[in-house]
Amino acid sequence: MLKIEHLKKRYKTGPWVLKDISFEVPDGEIVGLIGPSGAGKSTMIRCVNRLIDPSEGNIQLDGVNLSNLSSSKVREQRRHIGMIFQEYALVERLSVMENVLSGRLGYLPFWRSFLRRYPEKDIDNAFEYLDRVGLIDHANKRADELSGGQRQRVGIARALAQDPRLLLVDEPTASLDPKTSRQIMRLIQSICREKSLSAIINIHDVPLAMQFVDRIIGLQGGEVVFDGKPDELTEDVLTRIYGDEDWTDVKAEDDDLGIDQENDQESEEAA
């Protein structure tokens, strides 16, 4: 379980980016983090992963307080937190397989990581993860030969290679077309279900979030202004999060996504 208590973040002398954030994420729950640009979504994810240090508050993962660990202990705990980045963060000149195996670097002694000498079990598991994300036939391709959707799948496989207890996902569909976006979100959802893996997904696409997550947390000005089920995300709530707007199209798009998802699943079953 992830437990965040009174989390605050400020950069030097600037304003508070996060203001007293508190919530829990039980094992196996998928949380969608929504809000306007500058609301603090990416900052919160980076605080959880200790890519940046929180100014105040506690972040606990399975009883371990991540907020006050030394650098070496942070690296040790970060092995258990899979991160999927918006811009993929792949090493373009390396093969797909090598990028996936890089998820194991935190578990290896220095000489193995320096020489990229991975245990046979890690290699076998990497093939399984590539098969799971539909890229087994691309294992030996360079990362820069792949499409955006394929690169995001490599990022998912790399995160799985860490054998994480928590998955943090930062804008996984920002650069993808609508169909590929649904496929990526469906893949993340199914993997989390299979492994009882908790996830926090920072996502701008509200209808997509409503379709694929268990719970939505809405941030506005660094504060939690909504925390509930996707079907509780009314027009009034969306206005509270994003400001005045006609949200009728959002609800309609959510209905359309539901129909598209059913059609996609029927097509997959027929195939």
UniProtKB/TrEMBL annotation:
<keyword id="KW-1003">Cell membrane</keyword>
<dbReference type="InterPro" id="IPR003439">
    <property type="entry name" value="ABC_transporter-like_ATP-bd"/>
</dbReference>
<keyword id="KW-0472">Membrane</keyword>
<dbReference type="GO" id="GO:0016887">
    <property type="term" value="F:ATP hydrolysis activity"/>
</dbReference>
<dbReference type="InterPro" id="IPR017871">
    <property type="entry name" value="ABC_transporter-like_CS"/>
</dbReference>
<keyword id="KW-0547">Nucleotide-binding</keyword>
<dbReference type="InterPro" id="IPR050086">
    <property type="entry name" value="MetN_ABC_transporter-like"/>
</dbReference>
<feature type="region of interest" description="Disordered">
    <location>
        <begin position="252"/>
        <end position="271"/>
    </location>
</feature>
<protein>
    <submittedName>
        <fullName>Phosphonate ABC transporter ATP-binding protein</fullName>
    </submittedName>
</protein>
<feature type="domain" description="ABC transporter">
    <location>
        <begin position="2"/>
        <end position="246"/>
    </location>
</feature>
<dbReference type="InterPro" id="IPR012693">
    <property type="entry name" value="ABC_transpr_PhnC"/>
</dbReference>
<dbReference type="GO" id="GO:0015416">
    <property type="term" value="F:ABC-type phosphonate transporter activity"/>
</dbReference>
<comment type="similarity">
    <text>Belongs to the ABC transporter superfamily.</text>
</comment>
<keyword id="KW-0813">Transport</keyword>
<dbReference type="InterPro" id="IPR027417">
    <property type="entry name" value="P-loop_NTPase"/>
</dbReference>
<keyword id="KW-0067">ATP-binding</keyword>
<keyword id="KW-1278">Translocase</keyword>
<dbReference type="InterPro" id="IPR003593">
    <property type="entry name" value="AAA+_ATPase"/>
</dbReference>
<dbReference type="Pfam" id="PF00005">
    <property type="entry name" value="ABC_tran"/>
</dbReference>
<dbReference type="GO" id="GO:0005886">
    <property type="term" value="C:plasma membrane"/>
</dbReference>
<dbReference type="GO" id="GO:0005524">
    <property type="term" value="F:ATP binding"/>
</dbReference>
